[in-house]
Write a structure and sequence with these properties.
Layout (H helix, E strand, L loop, with lengths): L1 H18 L7 E11 L2 E7 L2 E6 L17 E8 L8 E3 H18 L3 E10 L2 E5 L4 E5 L18 E10 L4 E5 L1 H17 L6 E9 L3 E5 L4 E5 L20 E10 L4 E5 L11 H4 L5 E10 L2 E7 L2 E6 L21 E10 L4 E5 L7 H8 L5 E10 L2 E6 L3 E6 L9 H4 L8 E10 L4 E5 L7 H5 L8 E10 L2 E6 L2 E6 L20 E10 L4 E5 H16 L8 H13 L1
Parallel strand pairs: 13-15, 18-20, 23-25
Antiparallel strand pairs: 1-2, 1-4, 2-3, 4-5, 6-7, 6-9, 7-8, 9-10, 11-12, 11-14, 12-13, 14-15, 16-17, 16-19, 17-18, 19-20, 21-22, 21-24, 22-23, 24-25, 26-27, 26-29, 27-28, 29-30
Helix pairs in contact: 8-9
Length: 560
């Protein structure tokens, strides 16, 4: 009876085992850890099947395996039986399948997931999301570029799934989205407690070319370089350093973008409030050159107050020179206040006004008629430019080069660099012009020679040359020419050959031309004048006396 019962029980168990379905390969099954040996966990997955799993598959990245004998775990059945008769199972793949199910649900619900960064790859990092590996792009690590991600490695933290593809096994996550969301909440709270015009303390977090970002306790504000100080600041690092605590004023809050503009100089006294009183027009002050441009130089009178010295106000003599060749950055200079525009916060300064006008100095020290010496700086079609004291030039016009030569001919005798002497003929300080004369060095010979001579005067000249058209004569070194028709009143006597070189001849002055420096003289005019005078003295037209009688009487009187 007992044997019969045992057979029935065995038969029942056998039928049960035949009726029991073996789990499908590629599915997740539950198992129990029955032993741990040689770095592996032996797991009974039921169905008379056991498998081995490496202990490292039970460990999270950077952590020790958390597994003990008797623990129930889920594993992935890869193969029911291998060559050794064991089931091929994987804890890691089971975790992955479990993770994908969980992550897909989170992705659908737009929920955050927890993970840990455990590796670096090209373009970003790898993140363990509890069994599934995701890619974290470098741009999604933080709201600002991260230079050192070391402190974030292995740290469990929330992430946002940006996209996932189970078929390809791709998951992309973002840490930045979480930070921006919490940051937005924090910014909204902080901004709600701020008001424009409020003075607050902040910490300098970052410095750029155009300003600095200041942390106001969870929200950053921009402190622009132009709002750091009333004076010119070339770079924010001149007055700020990262980590420094500064007091700033809230200038503007944009409620929509949550952007905050900050200022430091607004908490300081505006030096422009006292500019008009401290710097009256035409007053002279010491300043420092802070910047040089093509159109002038900026000079700092005091911190926060700068003025522009326009290139036209830099030098009396250097007209077409770059300002950088007159002054240099950081140079201490004296300037004169020319104009103040309080509304535009501009001060016009002059550098040359602190020095005397060299043309005025020259006019005082070199009155007209003074002899000067200088180097020929330039030769033009209308004259010579001569370098004079005080770095100024004087001009000798073509007409002032020579008494005897045409200006176009006389200028050929000069070369650039020649040292010449001249006489100051005129100084125009307003037009900044100095007129010089080289021909006046020896005086005006023509003026000296004809000083007492005027039209109608009778002078004695010396014949110096006989020509077909007349004779050349000389008077006190001045040459004149008497044409054939002026040699005599009598046509028969109008012969040049009747004169000889060296003859002394009395002539009448018909013209004194100071411009051409010529005397017009005539023998004929003298004779006609003498005849007229004789008629007036010794006879009249109705006396009946002949011309011969009158002239004879006149000549007789002269002989007596």
């Amino acid at each position: 009876m007992c044997a019969k019962a045992s057979m029935e029980e065995f038969e029942a168990l056998l039928n049960e085992s035949f009726e029991m379905d073996t789990p499908d390969e590629g599915s997740v099954v539950k198992g129990k850890v029955i032993a741990i040996e040689a770095g592996q966990a032996i797991i009974d997955v039921g169905y008379k099947m056991e498998g081995r799993v490496e202990l490292k598959e039970f460990a999270n990245p950077g952590e020790q395996p958390d597994i003990s004998v008797g623990d129930e775990v889920e594993v992935f059945l890869r193969q029911v039986e291998n060559a050794r008769g064991e089931a091929v199972i994987s804890r890691e793949m089971a975790r992955r399948e479990e993770a994908w199910d969980r992550l897909e649900k989170a992705y659908a619900d737009d929920a955050r997931v927890e993970g840990a960064i455990f590796g670096r790859v090209k373009g970003g990092f790898t993140v363990d999301l509890g069994g599934a590996v995701a890619f974290l792009p470098g741009s999604q690590v933080d709201v600002r570029p991260v230079r050192d991600a070391g402190p974030l490695m292995g740290l469990k933290q929330p992430f946002q799934i940006l996209k996932m593809d189970r078929r390809r096994g791709n998951i992309v996550v973002s840490r930045r989205a979480i930070l921006e969301e919490s940051r937005a909440e924090q910014r909204a709270e902080v901004i709600s407690n701020l008001t424009e015009g409020q003075a607050v303390d902040g910490v300098v977090k970052n410095i750029t070319e155009y300003g600095a970002f200041v942390d106001l306790g969870g929200v950053d504000g921009l402190l622009h370089v132009t709002d750091m100080a009333w004076r010119r600041v070339n770079h924010p690092s001149e007055i700020l350093s990262i980590g420094e605590t500064v007091k700033v004023q809230v200038i503007k809050i944009n409620k929509e973008t949550h952007r905050i503009s900050l200022g430091m100089k607004q908490l300081q006294e505006d030096p422009w409030d006292l500019v008009a009183a401290k710097y009256p027009l035409e007053s002279v002050h010491a300043g420092r050159v802070t910047n040089i441009t093509d159109y002038g130089a900026f000079v700092e009178l005091e911190p926060g107050v700068e003025g522009l010295v326009h290139v036209s106000e830099m030098s009396w003599t250097k007209k077409n020179v770059h300002p950088g060749k007159i002054v240099s950055t950081s140079q201490e200079v004296e300037v004169m206040v020319l104009e103040i525009d309080q509304a535009k916060r501009r001060v016009s300064l002059g550098l040359k006004q602190t020095m005397r006008n060299p043309w005025e100095v020259f006019a005082e020290t070199h009155p007209e008629g003074t002899q000067v010496e200088g180097e020929v700086k330039n030769i033009t079609e209308f004259g010579l430019f001569i370098g004079l004291d005080g770095e100024i030039d004087g001009m000798v016009h073509l007409s002032d080069l020579s008494w005897d030569e045409r200006g176009e001919d006389a200028i050929q005798n000069y070369r650039k660099g020649d040292v010449v002497q001249a006489v100051v003929s005129e100084v125009d300080t307003e037009k900044e012009r100095i007129s010089l004369s080289i021909k006046a060095l020896g005086g005006d010979k023509f003026a000296e020679a004809v000083g007492g001579v005027k039209r109608g005067s009778i002078i004695t000249v010396t014949v110096t040359a006989i020509e077909d058209g007349g004779i050349e004569v000389e008077y006190e070194g001045m040459k004149s020419f008497i044409r054939r028709s002026d040699l005599s009143r009598d046509r028969a006597e109008q012969r040049p050959e009747r004169f000889s070189v060296g003859d002394k001849v009395d002539v009448r002055v018909t013209n004194v031309d100071s411009k051409t420096r010529r005397l017009g003289v005539s023998i004929k005019a003298r004779e006609i004048a003498e005849e007229k005078e004789a008629v007036e003295q010794f006879g009249s037209s109705d006396s009946g006396a002949s011309l011969g009688d009158i002239l004879g009487a006149a000549l007789k009187r002269d002989d007596d």
